[in-house]
Design goal:
mainly alpha; Vanadium-containing Chloroperoxidase, domain 1; membrane; Undecaprenyl-diphosphatase; PAP2/HPO_sf; UPP_Pase; PAP2/HPO
Length: 188
């Protein structure tokens, strides 16, 4: 089934040159959109800095997860096992098809932003989806690689968001307890 879906998408390569160009552009340049967005968010205010830090941290953890998965699991890329149409950039190293680093990072950052800014997060999720789709279109990954990478990237951001929420709640509880204790001492 995975290969059938891959073939259904990948066989369209070459039929629509303008779509091929867009897919190559998304595959190669989407990461710059994410980087530019995070830089712009960093210079807005404290709230956006918090989002930027959390998204960057999620991306960093996602890179570590990607590294460890690739150390222990190998799946040949589609163009190595099948007669697939391939668009640039052709990987210089024939590394594992799963996970897709592009897709994992895109979904990690998009999910982190989605927690705080719905409209912007939805736009980034759409761009993340197109990033994953472009990787299938260009013959780099199977659909299951993209789905798995999207899940891992999103789950990483969800876990980090929960940890940050718990930590902030813990710190707030301690600060409030301290303030109550100080107020009680002053009343005596």
């Amino acid at each position: 089934m995975d290969y059938k879906i891959f073939r259904a998408i990948n066989r369209l390569v070459g039929r629509y040159p303008s779509v091929d160009t867009i897919m190559v552009m998304i595959s190669q340049k989407a990461r710059y959109v994410y980087t530019l967005l995070l830089i712009l968010m960093w210079f807005r205010n404290k709230f956006y800095k918090k989002i930027t830090i959390q998204a960057t941290f999620s991306a960093g953890i996602t890179l570590l997860i990607n590294f460890f998965i690739k150390q222990f699991y190998f799946r040949a890329r589609p163009f190595l096992n099948h007669n697939a149409h391939i668009l640039p950039p052709i990987p210089s190293r024939m590394n594992s098809s799963f996970p897709s680093k592009h897709t994992m990072l895109s979904f990690a950052v998009a999910t982190s932003i989605l927690f705080y800014k719905r409209f912007l997060g939805c736009f980034m999720w759409l761009l993340a989806f197109l990033t994953g789709f472009s990787r299938i279109w260009s013959g780099q990954h199977y659909p299951s690689d993209i789905i798995g990478s999207a899940v891992i990237g999103s789950l990483t951001s969800i876990v980090i968001n929960v940890i940050v929420w718990l930590w902030n709640s813990f710190v707030l509880c301690i600060v409030q307890s301290y303030n109550r204790a100080c107020a009680f001492v002053k009343l005596r």
